[in-house]
Structure formats: structure tokens, C-alpha cells
From TrEMBL:
InterPro entries named among the record's database cross-references: AAA+_ATPase, ABC_transporter-like_ATP-bd, ABC_transporter-like_CS, ABC_Transporter_VariousFunc, P-loop_NTPase
Domain ABC transporter: residue ranges: 2-231
Protein name per Swiss-Prot or TrEMBL: ABC transporter ATP-binding protein
Organism annotation: Sporosarcina gallistercoris
Pfam families: ABC_tran
One MF term in the entry's GO annotations: ATP binding
Length: 296
């Protein structure tokens, strides 16, 4: 559906994307995780052709690129980017915004009432946007994407300014979009939230995808023990830890359990429990843990 090949861009001396490659399919939600200023927005801007890469290509549906205006129009019929709150029209109501997006991309606004209901906006959607709180504006921006209903959606900081209830509501809508076969990119600093709906999370570092965590496949199970750095170094003098173990962000020891027999697994659990009893869990690594591994 969407193929990124060898995307590179640099500003002055700073390399932001460096020969980045990615294939993405319909029905996928791809989380993009990286610290501030790494290149998430730049990546989205290149996918949407708001920014030209220094080299590389964005290919849609196996054949369309931004080589000419005709193909750009074709691509943009199927792609939306998350509106910025500052781009909302103060004097227009939420309904006006939704109808605008619906008719621009969809040619009809018949589904707008269903979007309003789904996002529980009925009590405010007829008021002018200038009267909305931050969270109300953010929900409207998301609703506009739902109204546009395109196949590819690029969502930058979609959860910004939302309270817990609204984060849950939007997460639910993202899961619905996946069921409907959309391809959704979500750049977010709410890392645990990505675990709820992303099929995979890519971690950007120094212009490249330094790690891709897939949630759809069998994931490696780890014995995870919280321990400070002096306990970790002391432990290493007492027992030989498996070569593949990780010590993440100076606080989390992770011992892979895959390939071990049940009795070996139990032995590791007993050993770590007897030495450092508290805060021990068994399970796969989540987005937070990989983030700490690569960026801490
Ligand atoms: N037009 C531009 N001119 C010069 N530098 C730019 C431009 N656009 C982006 N950059 C630089 O590129 C880098 C990546 O910026 P980008 O906005 O893509 O990061 P981000 O990962 O989206 O950050 P955040 O999490 O803060 O939104 C930053 O160092 C930024 O200063």
C-alpha cells in the first residue's frame, strides 16, 4: 500500500532521515516513537509531500509517486494528515469543519452525525470552534479525519491535551479504523497507549529505524526485574547472566525465557526472587521498555 524507499533529508548539517525504508499495508496501525526533534513530523511531511526529501521515494499502491501533479492529486484523495489546532476556523462550528472534511474527501457528509456520536461531541459540536477547550479542539481534529475517512491517515500527536477518558475513546476509534482496513500512522509520546492498538511500533534514531517492534507476532518473553545499577553489577559477579540479557536504562534487568526449559525458567525466577525479591514480572517488552533501551 505504501512504500518508503531510501528516504533521506538533512537540514543544514543535521541529518534527519538517513536512507529510511518502510513497507506498510492496509489494516495496519504503525506507531512512531522517538524523542522530540528526531524526525517524526518530517517523515509524515514527506509521506504527504509537504516536504521534499533530498533523495528517496514515496510509492502508493505500488505505482503512484509524487512525480507529477496528477499523481499527487490521486494520492491525496486517499490520504489525510492530522489537522493542527491552529488551523481550525474560529468562526465555524465543529459540524461545519466535519462537513467540510467529509465533502472534500468523501463527496458526502451523510456519515457526519455518526462521527459526532462516536466521539461524543453532540453537546458542543454546533458551537463555534473559538469557544472550545484544548481537548474539545483535539477531538474535533480527530473527528475531521474520521469524516474524511481516507485509506491512509497520518496522525501526529493525536492524543495531545486529551484526558484519560478521551484517550480511551480515540484509542477505540483507532481500533475500529484498523478493522475497516485503514493504514494509520500514529506519532506519539504516549508510549503505553501505543501498545493498545499498534500492530508495530518503529523507533527512529539518527535518521533510521533503529528497531521495529511487532505486536502481531509471537514476542520474546522476558523475566524482568527492577534493580539499581549497583545490584546489577553485584549480581553479575555472583551468577553468569545469559549473553542475550539486557539491562535497560539502568533499572531493568531482562532475561530472555525463550529456548529455556520450564525447569530452567523456574530456576531463573527463583534465583532472582531470592536475591532481589520485589518487582519481578514475566512477559514481553512493551513500547516503553524499548524506548528506554534505545533513548535512555
Ligand atoms: N524546515 C526546517 N528547517 C530546518 N530544520 C528543520 C525544519 N523542519 C524540521 N527541522 C529539524 O528537523 C528535526 C526533526 O524535526 P521534527 O519536527 O520532524 O521532529 P519530531 O520528531 O516530529 O519532534 P517532536 O516530537 O518535537 O514533534 C529537528 O531538529 C528540527 O529542528
Amino acid at each position: 500500500m505504501l512504500k518508503l524507499t531510501n528516504l533521506s533529508i538533512a537540514y543544514q548539517n543535521k541529518v534527519v532521515l538517513d536512507h529510511l525504508n518502510l513497507n506498510a499495508e492496509k489494516g495496519e496501525i504503525i506507531g512512531v516513537a522517538a524523542p522530540n526533534g528526531t524526525g517524526k513530523t518530517t517523515l509524515f511531511n514527506i509521506i504527504a509531500n509537504y516536504t521534499k526529501p533530498d533523495s528517496g521515494q514515496v510509492v502508493f499502491g505500488g505505482k503512484y509517486t509524487y512525480r507529477n501533479e496528477k499523481e499527487e492529486v490521486l494520492i491525496h484523495k486517499h490520504l489525510t494528515t492530522f489537522p493542527e489546532q491552529k488551523d481550525l476556523f474560529d468562526e465555524l462550528s465543529g459540524t461545519d469543519h466535519l462537513k467540510l472534511y467529509a465533502s472534500m474527501w468523501n463527496g458526502t457528509s451523510k456519515h457526519v452525525p455518526a462521527v459526532i456520536d462516536k466521539l461524543q461531541m453532540r453537546h458542543y459540536v454546533k458551537k463555534k470552534a473559538k469557544t472550545y477547550s484544548l481537548g474539545m479542539r483535539q477531538r474535533l481534529c480527530f473527528a475531521m479525519m474520521m469524516a474524511a475517512d481516507t485509506t491512509v491517515m497520518l496522525m501526529d500527536e493525536v492524543m495531545n491535551g486529551l484526558d484519560v477518558t478521551n484517550v480511551a475513546l480515540i484509542s477505540e476509534c483507532l481500533l475500529d479504523m484498523k478493522q475497516e482496513g485503514k493504514l494509520v500512522f500514529v506519532a506519539s509520546h504516549l508510549l503505553e497507549n501505543l501498545d493498545l492498538y499498534a500492530d508495530r511500533v518503529i523507533f527512529l534514531k539518527e535518521g533510521k529505524i533503529v528497531h521495529e517492534q511487532r505486536f502481531t507476532e509471537d514476542r520474546e518473553i522476558y523475566l524482568k526485574a527492577e534493580m539499581n545499577s549497583s545490584d546489577y553489577h553485584e549480581l553479575k559477579t555472583k551468577i553468569e547472566l545469559p549473553a542475550a540479557h539486557m539491562y535497560i536504562a539502568e533499572h531493568l534487568l531482562c532475561i530472555p525465557m525463550g529456548g529455556l526449559t520450564l525447569s530452567e525458567q523456574t530456576r531463573w525466577i527463583e534465583r532472582i526472587l531470592s536475591l532481589y525479591g520485589h518487582n519481578l514480572t514475566v512477559g514481553p517488552l512493551g513500547t516503553v521498555e524499548y524506548y528506554e533501551k534505545y533513548f535512555s
